[in-house]
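Reading a protein record of the kind used here takes only a little practice. To see the layout at work, look at the sequence and tokens printed below.
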Amino acid sequence: MPFPLDREKTQKLTEELENVIAAHLAWFKQFSRLLACGNGIDAFEAAEDAYLKSPFGQWYYRDSPHPLASHEPFQAMAEIQQALHECARQAVETIRAGRRPSAELHDNCVDLALKLNNKLRHLQLDIIGDLLATDPLTGCYSRRGMINRLQAEQERAQRIERPCSLCLVDFDHFKRINDSYGHPAGDAVLKQGMRFIGGVLRKYDIVFRYGGEEFLLCLPGTPADDAAQVIERIRSGLEKMPIMLPGRHKLHVTASFGIAEVMLTKPVEDSIASADQALLRAKNAGRNRVEIWRGT
């Protein structure tokens, strides 16, 4: 994926999911006991809107929109949960009428409850994997799995016949900032600077922490010249934005940018190297500028 959350919110979400999973299993245990023994039939919530009142429903429908609303596996859980509660409602009404639910209705309830639990567990694992693959300071993706993701974008560019551009970003004179103001100031520059950059990019653009103060941006479906227009907005906005340092001090920073289109017939590492060459040109030309690699 990526998930549309910062690291702190993502960690909070994993804790919420653990509680939701436990509560869902407790609900299923109660319902299973009701089917097998008839215990708790009067207290069991079986109204048509019961799915909203269950622990899962309260979590799923609490926020509008939910932080994971754009995530397809999250969307799919609503239909499963509503079907589960409809089956449960039918089973409870059957028991209250003095009859036993059919084997088919029982099996549907069990299958849907287990399916929802599996969906929740897979979502939790996805989020944990996302945490492991992100840089704890900036929330950008780390280099873990970077090449695989770029190869997937390379294949997609070839399939849809639309170019994909890469951009290497390097914060100018970063060592000087650390030496003059301390490492907490350097962390503030990276964190706030990348938050600004992420706010300019599209949701499906991908940002990796390439190393130190260098970051790699991947802009799918974007020719180099179009990417340069986006990156120029980032460059000019960044130099105007005050970075808030510890102790209420402010600092203005700049960055240099090197852009290259992903080559479809060569390893993606070659395209990264081309973006690096463009970045070197930007630095040699005085920094705080955007350069495009055009193969010469």
The mean pLDDT is 90. Residues 7-37 form the longest helix (31 residues). The first strand starts at residue 165 and ends at 171.
